[in-house]
Design brief:
The chain is mostly helical. The termini are far apart. The protein contains six helices and no strands. Helix 2 packs antiparallel against helix 4, helix 4 runs antiparallel to helix 5 and helix 4 packs parallel to helix 6.
C-alpha cells in the first residue's frame, strides 16, 4: 500500500497529465497482483483487491484500454491456475477458481455496462446542450431582428415628426 501511495504521488502530480504515469501504475498493479496471487501465502485474500482492478483500470485509462488490461490480468491469473508450476503456491481448488473468475468477470461486465451508460448519458447531455445553444442563438437572432425593425420604424416616425416641427408650415397644413 505504501509503495502504491508513493508511486501515485510520483506519477500523478496535480499539475501534470496522467497518461504515462497511469499506464505505469496499472502495469505495476498487474504485476504485483499476479505475484501476490501466485506466490503469496494468502492468495485467497489477494483476490479481494484484484476484483476491483477493472474498476480502477477503466476509470484511469479509459473503457477500451481498461477492459484490455483487465482481461490481460485475468489471463495471467488463469495461467497460474491451469499451468502446473511448482513454485506457485496457489489454491487450485475448482470451487475457488470458478468463484474467483465468475466474480471477476461479473465485476468487469458490471463496470463496462456502467461506463457505457455513463458515456451514453454524457453524449445525451452534450446533444441537449448543443440544442439549447442553438435555440438560444435563434432567440437572440429573433430579438435582434425585432429590435432592428422597431428602431427603424421609430426612427422614421421621429424623423417625420422633426421635419414637421421644424418646417414652416402653418397649423392648417399640419
Amino acid at each position: 500500500v505504501v509503495v502504491l501511495v508513493v508511486l501515485s504521488i510520483i506519477f500523478f502530480p496535480p499539475h501534470k497529465k496522467y497518461t504515462r504515469g497511469v499506464f505505469i501504475l496499472i502495469i505495476l498493479f498487474e504485476l504485483i497482483s499476479v505475484y501476490s496471487f501466485w506466490f503469496g501465502e494468502n492468495a485467497a485474500y489477494s483476490w479481494i483487491i484484484i476484483i476491483f482492478f477493472p474498476f480502477f483500470a477503466i476509470r484511469l485509462i479509459g473503457e477500451r484500454k481498461g477492459v484490455i488490461h483487465s482481461l490481460i490480468l485475468a489471463l495471467f491469473l488463469l495461467l497460474g491456475h491451469l499451468i502446473p508450476i511448482p513454485e506457485i503456491t496457489i489454491n487450485k481448488s475448482l470451487s475457488f477458481n470458478l468463484n474467483f473468475f465468475f466474480i471477476y468477470f461479473l465485476v468487469l461486465l458490471l463496470i463496462f455496462i456502467l461506463e457505457d451508460s455513463k458515456s451514453k448519458k454524457i453524449k445525451e447531455l452534450i446533444e441537449k446542450s448543443s440544442e439549447s445553444a442553438q435555440e438560444l442563438q435563434q432567440k437572440n437572432e429573433f430579438i435582434s431582428d425585432l429590435s432592428h425593425q422597431l428602431r427603424t420604424s421609430l426612427s422614421n416616425i421621429i424623423l417625420v415628426n422633426n421635419l414637421i416641427y421644424n418646417s414652416s408650415l402653418d397649423k392648417n397644413q399640419t
